[in-house]
Each structure stands twice: as structure tokens, then as C-alpha cells.
Write a structure and sequence with these properties.
398 residues; mainly alpha; single chain
Length: 398
């Protein structure tokens, strides 16, 4: 682990910078969109635009990083994200906001897929849990501070101010990536430059990237992102608003979720390397399920905080391990492709969650959305039992 520690930390710090900005807009985006005079369902569509672009671009990004390397996509993605955040800040109508969120989604698909592929390239099956946990600590440390910063900025300077800060931070992260990163793709790293890795046949790629175990990991990521991010980003700010609380409280709740999750990232990675991925994921999934259920009846601020504690704690145990499993199961030559599918499936959850839950909220009320999410999460938890137990990370074969 020591020989890759510096490179993983550098990637983690870059993600910290960009994620402070990205998460700063989360508490304000639903209300910012709603101020243009649209319904909750349209608010859901605005939020889903970002995720839709990540979903569509994630898979081809993974394929391209297997051919051309990871580093160019990290840098370009952060610059595209900066442009999208600036467009959202200056939006004069709902159409401009849609366009800005689309650019942010394209950029995020680039940098997030490529950076996480870098981490699993650097690690092996015996330390991949620790490496992904360390990387995700930086990624989600931004999610700890960002919402509070965003809530304060919106309260003092208007709902669009967090988007400007996001643009500045994404530009800084791109500059850091250009200076601090070097290529990690195994074939490109060993070959003289310039090299384009020859692609496999599409059918062979598809077969190797959709084994049973990888399919389960994709499903788990879909359900987790649908609930932990899709539901909380879309519905939770509205639930808090209906209680008559302002954006500072929304930021505090999101900070609670992100902070508790982050505390368990690295320890859960260590445990997953020692005890097996599944043996750590399942208890976390059960704790998170309790959080979804408690949100269903959370009509007061103390109950909302208690539900956030459960969901944040459970999420900390399962946020990082699925990415390590992708590295465990995916062969070296298609690891970027598998990571692209993994992220696209998570983003599919983010695409569907705002739309589905927005319509559920319109017709059945906000509490019903938490029961829908709990049901999906219960199915994903059952699927985890089909994964190998494994005392440590499983080698990349089935």
C-alpha cells in the first residue's frame, strides 16, 4: 500500500476540491429550479439532467480510457464541469439551467470514471478496499463541507452563488490534475508514447464486463445511488422546507449524512480486505435500510436527524466496497470499461430517482417516496448474498 499511497492521496485531494463545489449546489438546486416557476416533477427533471449525461457518457468514457488512458479524461472533465457550473450560475431561465446541468454531467462522467479507474489500476486485490476507501474519503469530504458552505452562500448571497464557487473550484482541480497526475493504465504505462491500445471486439468486451458477479455489483450501485443520493438530493430538501426550516438546516443534514459516511470509508475498506467484501457490505446495507424507513415517518427535525444518522452510518460501510469489487472482478484490459458501466448504472439510479420520486411525491406525498426507496434497497441487499464471501479481495476471475 505504501508504494501507491502518494498517488492515491493526490487523486483524493483533487476530488475533494471539485466535490466541495459539486455538493455545495445540492441543497439549493431543487429550490433554485423551482423559483423559475416549475412543478416538483420538472425540478426532478432538472436534477436528472446531470445524472442523465453521466449515465450516457460513463460507459463510452470507460471504453475510451481503456484505449487512450485515464489522465486526459480527468483534466478535460473538470474543465467541462467548470463551464457547466458557470452556465448554471448565470441562468436566466429553466432552459439555461438544463444546459448548465448537462455540461456538469458530461464533465463528471469524464473525471469520475477516469479517476476511479486510476485508483483500481494502482491497487491489487489485497489492498483495493483500503485504496478505494482512502480515495472516497477525499471524494466525500467535499460532500461533508460542501452542503454547509452551499447553504450558507445561498442564505447570504442568493441561490445561484454556490454555482459560481463550484466553477472556480473545478478549474482549480483541473490545474492540480494537470500537474500532479500521471497515467496509470497498465498497457499504456508500460508502452512507449504515443500508444493507442487496440480495442477488443465489442461482443467480447460486453461478455467480459457483464459476468454474474459484476452484474450484481452494478445492481447494488444502482440501488444505492437511487436512494442515498437520488432520494436525499431531490426529496429531502423539500421535506425540510415543508417543515418551515431554511437552507442552513438542509446543509446541516447533508453534512451529517456525508460526515458519518466518510468516517467509515477507510475502516470499512480495511475490514473488506481482511473479512471479505460481502461480509462488510451486508451489515451496512441493513443499517441504511433502517434510515430509509425512519425517513418515512420523519415529521420533525429530531426524527430527520436520526434517520440521517442511520443512513449515513450504513452508507459508510457500502459506499466504497462496490468499486473495489469492480477492480476485483474486471480483467485488466477492460477495467475502465467495467468502471464506466458501474458508474453509468449508479447514474441511472440518479436519473430515475428524481423523476419517479417526483411523480410519487406529487400524487402520494413526500413520505411515500421513502417507502419506494426502501423496497428497492431491500432487493439489492438480498442480491448481495449471491456475491462470494472471500476472506480478502477476489481475484479478477470467476
Amino acid at each position: 500500500m505504501r508504494h501507491i499511497l502518494g498517488r492515491v492521496i493526490a487523486l483524493s485531494l483533487m476530488m475533494l476540491i471539485v466535490m466541495v463545489g459539486s455538493s455545495a449546489v445540492i441543497p439549493v438546486l431543487p429550490q433554485y429550479a423551482r423559483d423559475f416557476g416549475v412543478s416538483i416533477a420538472v425540478v426532478g427533471l432538472v436534477i436528472a439532467t446531470n445524472s442523465s449525461m453521466r449515465m450516457l457518457i460513463g460507459f463510452p468514457t470507460g471504453v475510451l480510457t481503456d484505449r487512450w488512458g485515464r489522465r486526459p479524461f480527468v483534466i478535460a472533465g473538470m474543465l467541462i464541469t467548470a463551464a457547466g457550473a458557470l452556465t448554471s450560475w448565470s441562468a436566466t431561465g429553466i432552459g439555461t439551467l438544463f444546459a448548465g446541468q448537462a455540461l456538469v454531467g458530461i464533465g463528471a462522467a469524464f473525471y469520475a470514471t477516469a479517476a476511479l479507474s486510476m485508483v483500481v489500476d494502482l491497487a491489487d486485490a489485497t489492498n483495493r478496499g483500503k485504496a478505494t476507501g482512502l480515495y472516497m474519503m477525499g471524494f466525500h469530504l467535499g460532500a461533508v463541507f460542501g452542503p454547509g458552505i452551499g447553504g450558507w452562500l445561498a442564505y447570504r448571497h442568493g441561490l445561484n452563488s454556490p454555482f459560481l464557487v463550484f466553477s472556480i473550484l473545478a478549474t482549480v482541480a483541473a490545474a492540480a490534475a494537470a500537474v500532479l497526475t500521471r497515467e496509470t493504465h497498465p498497457l499504456r504505462e508500460r508502452a512507449p508514447s504515443p500508444v493507442v491500445v487496440q480495442p477488443e471486439a465489442p461482443r467480447e468486451i460486453w461478455t467480459r464486463a457483464f459476468t454474474r458477479n459484476l452484474g450484481i455489483v452494478y445492481l447494488v450501485n444502482f440501488a444505492f445511488r437511487f436512494g442515498f443520493h437520488g432520494l436525499t438530493w431531490t426529496i429531502l430538501p423539500l421535506l425540510i422546507g415543508d417543515l418551515g426550516l431554511d437552507t442552513r438546516i438542509t446543509g446541516l443534514i447533508f453534512t451529517t449524512l456525508g460526515g458519518l459516511s466518510m468516517l467509515f470509508f477507510f475502516p470499512s475498506g480495511v475490514l473488506a480486505d481482511r473479512l471479505g467484501r460481502r461480509n462488510v457490505m451486508v451489515p451496512g446495507a441493513i443499517i441504511a435500510a433502517g434510515g430509509f424507513l425512519l425517513f418515512r415517518w420523519a415529521g420533525t427535525l429530531p426524527l430527520i436527524i436520526a434517520a440521517a444518522v442511520l443512513l449515513g452510518t450504513g452508507g459508510g460501510f457500502i459506499s466504497t466496497i462496490p468499486a473495489a469489487l469492480v477492480g476485483d472482478f474486471a480483467p485488466e484490459g477492460i477495467r475502465g470499461t467495467a468502471m464506466g458501466i458501474y458508474r453509468s448504472m449508479g447514474d441511472l439510479g440518479l436519473v430515475l430517482a428524481p423523476v419517479i420520486l417526483g411523480f410519487v411525491a406529487d400524487y402520494s406525498g413526500l413520505p411515500a417516496t421513502f417507502f419506494v426507496t426502501f423496497t428497492l434497497w431491500a432487493l439489492a441487499t438480498l442480491a448481495m448474498f449471491l456475491l462470494p464471501k472471500g476472506p480478502v479481495g477476489i481475484p479478477a476471475k470467476e
